[in-house]
Known about the structure:
By secondary structure, this protein is of the alpha/beta class. Helices cover about 40% and strands about 15% of the residues. The chain is elongated and about 125 Å long.
Amino acid sequence: MAFNYFGGDFQNYFNTMDRMYDGAAGPAYGENVGGAPYVGGKFEFGPLKGEDMPDVNAGEIGITVVESEGQGRGSPIQSISSALRMGAGNIQFVWNVAQNQPIGGRAKGYGKDIRNAIKEMLKSSGAKISSFEMPTGLQVSGWDGRNGFSNEMLSSNIQEIKDAIKFAADTAGGGGIDIVSNEFPETVWDQSWNNDPNFRFSKYEGEDQSAVRYLVDKRTGRMIDEVRQNDPIMIPKWKKATERYKAKWCDWHTKPEDKQENVLVEPGDYVDALGNKIDITRKEHLIYRQPEWDQDGSRFFTEQVLWKKNDENNLKKGQVFLQDELERFKKMAEERLKKGDYSAEEEQELKRVAEGELRPEEYAFRLKMENQYSRAIGQSLFYTPDYQDTIKLLEKMKKEYNRQKMIEEEMSEEEKERIKEPIQYGGRGYGSGVTDYAHRELPSDKLYRDIKQTMHRLKHIHESSGAADAQAEETWKQIQSTESMDRYAKKRIFNSYAKLAVDAMNETEKNPNVDKDIYVGPELGWPGMYGGHPEEFIEIIEKSRKKMIELLTRPTVKDPLQKDAEVTNPIYEQLHKQGKVPNLKEAKKIAEKHIKGCLDTSHLGMWLNNLEDKPGETQEEKINRFKKWYMDEVKKMQDKKTIGHIQVVDSATGAHGHLPPGQGIFPTVEAVKMLKKLGFDGDVVSEGHEEEMTAGRGRILYETWRAFGAPISATSYWTPGEPMRFGSVYQSSFGGPAPPGYIFGAYVPSNEFKVWTEVPLE
Length: 762
């Protein structure tokens, strides 16, 4: 019979090898085993102290198993069973069947019998599934990898995660659900967290010169443009004040008799042709900007708006920089907010600008689109000045036609012939015209032709001008609806995690199978994708928790899927109906319990390839410098209480790798041991798949145990001497040489040998 030294058969032992077989009844009552008395069906050990306290023991360290080996091979039961036979007491289950595969995988593919079978396997072995990893490529932002963000894809992804939450409850009694956080592409060199001169990162060499930032139409989620930071923006050279003076606001909609407040015009302010100040936050003012005229070239001047000031070649007199233009725009928004001169529709955007939230790429796009807006308005104005006069003329012509027609109807044929005139073609802006003396027409016929010509002219005006006005309006709406990709996506990410955490909370409370909390969160992603940097990992978790607190405590919330509109909160309504609305302190605890992330140590190591070199630095020196950053970032994530569990993975280079700890160049073992000392109490699994392809199954688990010097027996802690570690027995027979795991030399049988059945020996 197997006994657990910490009480209760088949659970909480250090590892699945840590069992004692001593007859059917076990040790006699009061008998000491390893210095610990066996009392009341369990060994009563005191707290471990000092050198006897293991950093990480073998029972804590688990492995990842995949749902399927591909091509129809393998199943969850086979994968889990194989891990248990290797001695794993802790498993992370990885869903790896593609989301778009309709048959043969993911949570929807396994019914009650399979789920119960998994549950019974875990129960009988004393092992556990601590977490479930969603398929790579499944994001909670809805990024489709091509055109932008899709609500349809987001809905599908969210449902997959909800299914996994239910599966975790049914089979493992709870645990973590982690989503690899490659949410959307982003720049690296200019991120706010990338400001330490000793640890500067970039996506690639020269990123600061050619980095691309993406923009999204927040009405649809569609990606509409990309802004390259080395591409200057061409704009007209607008007239600006060169000295300080008082003037009027440029407002041609105000009647002269209306009193206008005098305003102070500062050098650099936009002004119209008469020197009145222009407010560039107002679309109606934009068309009164005055471009400077190049007399010699008989054209208007243009100028380049450059992104950066730090290039010496760009610091010539009069050069225009994006950050200066953006600062001017910000001051105008602040000024307008102080006056209270804005509509409800404009308020939110003005506040965003005044608070410095308008991104450089958003303003660069605005400058380009303002050109299109002004061009469309100019086209409209070209046709419309005499539009009303032409309509009045047409009405007079129609009256004259009717009058002339009545006169002609009273005339004889001879009289009509006398008043006919030669037909005139052309004229009216088409040259001098041509007179056809061979053919004559009545005055009413001539008026009829003039009326038709005038109607065609009106049609041309309103078609051209109307289309230009529509284009101008759509351009302005596009300006107002454009948002940088990261701003747009982050709101969706935080909202998604918060709602999923509410589902995890509900499943934890209501599912009778659950005996440990279910939580959701990001797995540290890759460099160059949002969620790949530790600061972003922390940001996702902290802001998702904040959003969850809002969902639990507020009757209305802003919904990023409904253009950030304030909407009724059904989660609050349900809690209120049940009398379970938590206070803020309780809501914070709930959010911390149900939103936690997965630290993948290999993904963290990938930042080595993005760390910028220092002059004269060797590769070894660079790696040692990187290790300090690596350990500091791990500590930071733990200090923020964001790590729920760890995938401890090593790599031989800065590339994405899956080696067991200790087989690469990163301080993976040291990082986990440090976390344990800092109070981390989550689960640890190894994900070293790659070497298993050549070195055989089990290497993930056994090499990890050996790397940590994990103790294999609880009793060894209370016997004299050094505790027996897994490294002492791996590939040995518990202290003595083990026979090889293969046959070699003369002992290898001949390939020609056959048994009496004639079956070749293999």
